[in-house]
Design a protein that fits this description.
Elements (H helix, E strand, L loop, with lengths): L3 H5 L19 H15 L4 E6 L5 H10 L5 E6 L6 H11 L10 H17 L3 E6 L7 H10 L10 E7 L2 H6 L5 H6 E7 L4 H14 L6 E2 L1 H11 L3 H17 L4 E2 L1 H15 L14 H16 L1 H5 L17 H5 L4 H7 L12 H6 L8 H12 L48 E5 L3 E5 L8 E6 L3 E7 L3 E7 L2 E6 L3 E5 L2
Parallel strand pairs: 1-4, 1-5, 2-3, 3-4, 6-7
Antiparallel strand pairs: 8-11, 8-14, 9-10, 11-12, 12-13
């Protein structure tokens, strides 16, 4: 069974969720950000600050910057910076390929880093430290970075520091305790959503770089994605990836608006876990999120097509499920969880085996990890995950525009309710996870009898609350987790 990348003739997924420099799209804003970071290297400035909302391209800009550093610049890239000063110094030294004894004190680590900088300075080299998600750095650690930036020779500074993060980083730097650090920062870069006129080129650039050969997109799809996402690259990638999968499940090389509607349905399922930031405004409830989801579909289909489904058969729906780490860990009552879930502005998108592969350095690739994952799923009945290693990350997906009702206006038509005879049509089961265990019986304790991969199609046999039974061969059936498959009736 072909995957969707093979179906469309792609060499790789054109809309990856992890930043890939090969897919860097140079808008004017991102070019200016990159130029500013490169200027830092050749200037006397010690600090640069890069901020932007999640999904606007900070990390891919940083990776592009690192890839283009000249040979006389050595770099350390720190991605998880919620560290004490000792932990940060140790992480920096290790990224510079310097082995350190974990028992060393902060002063000893500082001295070791100082000696390294002096050594490379004598060789005509400089060092740059890039800290991503720097809004999570404790104030004490930020102050140590300021002291570290004081290291210099008679001719030049030995170290450049780039702090990248969400807008909360600006708020942190405005705190009184960090005023001395802020005085040293003279280079500020802010990234925003890409302009509407750049979105079409952004989408087609990704398709071309992935090896586009068998795909066409209706112009209306691009326009609607532009309006819904407001130009946020991460949400563009999310919608485009799921729209392409919807077209694949529909066996269509042309992506149309029905496929986008299917993708929106899966994104709206994710919106049930939207976490609003704390503010003076009234908190929204999950009901409001559901109403927003309905408004999206009404805006695309028209009310008559929403409530009289027999008038038009939509494209195959994608049953893309989500795993929410905080939700799984939270054992409080549902009402309390709902209130907690609205405290910040993040959306946890689904985590598949592809995500694990893209973060292989973070997750040990062994059977023990897989066993722990399955046990974790067994203890959290609301969020089952089979054969998928769990990374507790919080990728951000911006809130979908509430103005989508103006996108697509359908004429109102009278709805005629007519009973339809019940017909038990054969069904097919499509695998949505990159790798999914097939069990002998619907239980995590059952033996694994096969492994299914994304895009494979199996004949539907039966299902229960959490599992689906599939026909593996003419004489063998097995069970897979329902939340990682899509079930479609045959015509």
């Amino acid at each position: 069974m072909r995957t969707f990348t093979e179906f469309f003739g792609f060499y790789q997924d054109p809309f990856k969720r992890t930043p890939d420099v090969d897919f860097y799209y140079p808008t004017q804003m991102h070019i200016e950000a990159l130029d500013t970071l490169q200027y830092l290297i050749h200037s006397d400035e010690p600090f640069a600050v890069l901020t932007g909302e999640p999904g606007t391209g900070k990390t891919i800009t940083i990776k592009k910057f690192i890839n283009e550093l000249p040979s006389n610049i050595v770099s350390a890239y720190i991605l998880f910076p919620n560290l004490t000063p000792e932990e940060l110094f140790m992480a920096i030294l290790e990224d510079f390929n310097i082995h350190v004894d974990k028992s060393l004190t902060k002063n000893a680590l500082f001295a070791k880093l100082r000696d390294f900088l002096i050594e490379i300075g004598s060789e005509g080299k400089k060092a740059v430290i890039i800290i991503d998600e720097a809004q999570n750095l404790p104030n004490e650690t930020l102050e140590e970075l300021r002291l570290l930036s004081n290291l210099e020779t008679e001719k030049d500074k030995l170290l450049k520091i780039i702090l990248a993060g969400q807008p909360e980083l600006d708020e942190k730097l405005n705190e009184e305790s960090l005023r001395q650090l802020k005085q040293r920062v003279t280079l500020y870069v802010k990234l925003d959503n890409i302009k509407q006129e750049d979105i079409k080129n952004y989408i087609y650039s990704h398709l071309e770089k992935a090896g586009k050969s068998y795909v066409k997109i209706h112009s209306g799809v691009v326009k609607r994605i532009a309006k819904i996402t407001k130009g946020n690259p991460r949400l563009i990638n999310t919608l485009m990836e799921r729209t392409i999968i919807a077209a694949f499940l529909d066996n269509s090389h042309t992506i149309n608006e029905n496929h986008l509607i299917s993708a929106l349905s899966s994104v709206n399922n994710v919106m049930a876990t939207v976490h609003k930031k704390k503010s003076g405004k009234a908190k929204h409830t999950v009901i409001a999120a559901v109403i927003g989801c309905l408004a999206l579909l009404v805006g695309f289909l028209g009310a008559d097509k929403i409530f009289n489904l027999k008038t038009e058969k939509p494209a195959a729906q994608i049953a893309v499920n989500t795993y929410t780490p905080q939700a799984a860990e939270n054992t409080a009552p549902a009402k309390e969880y709902t209130e907690n879930a609205l405290n910040n502005n993040d959306i946890y998108t689904d985590i598949t085996a592809e995500t694990v592969e893209n973060n292989a350095a973070l997750v040990p690739d062994n059977q023990e990890t897989a066993n722990i994952t399955e046990q974790y799923a067994a203890n959290n009945t609301n969020q089952h995950t089979e054969n998928i290693q769990i990374i507790q990350t919080t990728p951000y997906v911006p809130t979908v525009s509430q103005d989508v009702n103006n996108i697509y206006q359908a004429e109102e038509q009278p709805v005629i309710e007519e009973p339809e005879p019940v017909v038990n049509r054969p069904k097919d089961v499509y695998i949505l996870a990159d790798s999914l265990n097939v069990r002998a019986i619907p239980s995590l304790e059952s033996a694994r009898i096969a492994s299914a991969t994304v895009g494979q199609k199996y004949e539907y046999v039966s299902e229960n609350e959490n599992w689906v039974q599939i026909q593996i061969s003419p004489i063998l059936t097995g069970w897979v987790f329902k939340q990682y498959v899509s079930i479609s009736e045959r015509p």
